[in-house]
Amino acid sequence: MISYALDSCIHCGKCKRICPFLAHYDMDLSEFATRPELKGECYLCDNCKRTCPKNISGREIAMEHRKNDPLPSFKVRLQKTPYLLRNVQKKNTKSLLYLGCNYPGQFPETCKKLIEICREDGIDFSVDCCKKPVAQTGYSLSEDSIFDHVKDRGIERLICCCPNCYNMLKGRSEIEVISIFEYLDEQGLLEELPEENIPLYIPCGDREHLEYFKYIEPYLKSYHKEYNKIHCCGLGGGGKHTPEVAEEVKEKFKSLHETYGGIWTYCASCSIAFQNYGMDHIVNILSVFLGVNEEPSTSYMKNILAFRRLPHDI
């Protein structure tokens, strides 16, 4: 992508106008391709690609820089490879409910409801990390390390709660990967929500292909996308050395939150960011569909430890 950016950029400036990181350094994507020292400042949201007439991806530029010279990853690798608090399936099942690591910590009752639904369908569950936080540093991961607990188990399909897990795992093996909303739609468990003018935030990882949202949208009466003018929730890792950019993202969310009095999303990682910004009335669409109506928990570690001991009794 670096070579393509240098050869193809027409310097129209559209990427700078949509990305606070690029705007802060007054550079377009072709210049970013020559600035490897800024590899850790990109939020990896790829909003730039969606506006670029040449389809240049800032995310791919950042990742190419990071693979050439990875960001520090010892701490995250220690935590995530393997995930120290994992609770993986005990039996061989053709389908597996892949809860990830953030959903059980943020929305424990919602996850328990999903486990109950899947148990009736003969599907076991797994609490684990998809390794995306490690991959985003540029550190090289083998496919065996990513799928270490599902290989040789006869698993043919992973049902992912988290859009980040979905994007990380889909297409990496012969195992089919679907979203939890696709599964619930198959089971006839999604019904139209009565709320109107929902203040919706589509996670940046789902904006290009809408693999999750295409199963959600038919059941929404109406919604608006003012929040989606913001490129990323901020949890993508950018802005570590440019706190003014991170603060700009935070203030945009807080300003809209003051206007709308809440925010709806379906990404547990985004919910963590919104909590960190001091926002309340954070509505998880998955939890609403299931009738749990759970707000993000403030006891993340306590919840994860509880799931670490949760029995598998399908």
CATH architecture assignment of the largest domain: 3-Layer(aba) Sandwich
Identify the quaternary structure here: single chain
* CATH class value of the largest domain: Alpha Beta
Helix and strand content put the structural class at alpha/beta
Mean pLDDT: 92
Binned, the helix content reads 40-55%
What is the radius of gyration? 20 Å
What's a quick, concise take on this entry?
One of its GO terms (molecular function) is metal ion binding. The protein is an alpha/beta fold.
Could you explain how this protein is built, in words?
- With 314 residues, this protein is of the alpha/beta class.
- It has helices at 2-8, 14-18, 20-24, 29-32, 47-51, 58-68, 74-80, 102-106, 108-120, 132-135, 143-146, 163-169, 180-186, 213-216, 243-260, 268-276, 285-289, 300-308, and strands at 95-100, 124-127, 157-160, 176-179, 198-199, 223-224, 263-265, 282-284.
- The strands form three sheets. The chain has a four-stranded parallel sheet, with helices on both faces. Strands 5-6 form a two-stranded parallel sheet.
- The radius of gyration is 20 Å and the shape is globular.
- The model has no long low-confidence stretch (mean pLDDT 92).
Spell out the blueprint of helices and strands.
Blueprint: H1 2-8, H2 14-18, H3 20-24, H4 29-32, H5 47-51, H6 58-68, H7 74-80, E1 95-100, H8 102-106, H9 108-120, E2 124-127, H10 132-135, H11 143-146, E3 157-160, H12 163-169, E4 176-179, H13 180-186, E5 198-199, H14 213-216, E6 223-224, H15 243-260, E7 263-265, H16 268-276, E8 282-284, H17 285-289, H18 300-308
Parallel strand pairs: 1-2, 1-3, 3-4, 5-6, 7-8
InterPro entries: 4Fe4S_Fe-S-bd, 4Fe4S_Fe_S_CS, Cys_rich_dom, HdrC_iron-sulfur_subunit
Domain 4Fe-4S ferredoxin-type: 1-30
Protein name: 4Fe-4S ferredoxin-type domain-containing protein
